[in-house]
């Protein structure tokens, strides 16, 4: 279980799969396993949501995904997502699609987060810049520089 005094920043993402794919591919599972094995992330929850055309959802835990690479996760997850969380996340998924949901701790940042808390600091803002926005900005800068 997670020691609450030693927790780094926690993130989540929802990855919608192409319509002909309903699960993590081998490459996705292997990369996630590599991040865990290198101590960069600690997976707290991992599942797949399938949403039918009517909007009903079915949830599959990582143990049901038949990806041998994910064995590295065995028994180490907090499984923190509640039914209400899953329903909220499923709202982002198109009907007739499936999506992988990952909640992870940025283990690489844990020592910094602990030091900040021990120094009396507290997190007052956190955010993400969408990757697509950064790519668009970089591409725009490249074309302007030509």
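^ Assign residues to that structure.
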């Amino acid at each position: 279980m997670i020691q609450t005094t030693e927790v780094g920043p926690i993130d989540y993402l929802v990855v919608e799969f192409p319509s002909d794919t309903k699960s993590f591919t081998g490459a996705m599972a292997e990369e996630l396993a590599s991040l865990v094995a290198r101590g960069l992330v600690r997976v707290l929850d991992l599942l797949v949501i399938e949403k039918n055309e009517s909007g009903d959802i079915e949830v599959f835990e990582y143990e049901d995904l038949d990806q041998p690479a994910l064995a590295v996760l065995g028994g180490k997850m907090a499984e923190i997502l509640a039914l209400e969380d899953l329903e909220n996340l499923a709202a982002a998924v198109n009907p007739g699609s499936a999506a992988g949901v990952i909640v992870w701790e940025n283990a690489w940042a844990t020592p910094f987060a602990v030091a900040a808390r021990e120094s009396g600091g507290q997190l007052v803002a956190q955010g993400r810049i969408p990757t697509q926005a950064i790519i668009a900005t970089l591409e725009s800068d490249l074309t302007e520089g030509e």
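The radius of gyration is 18 Å.
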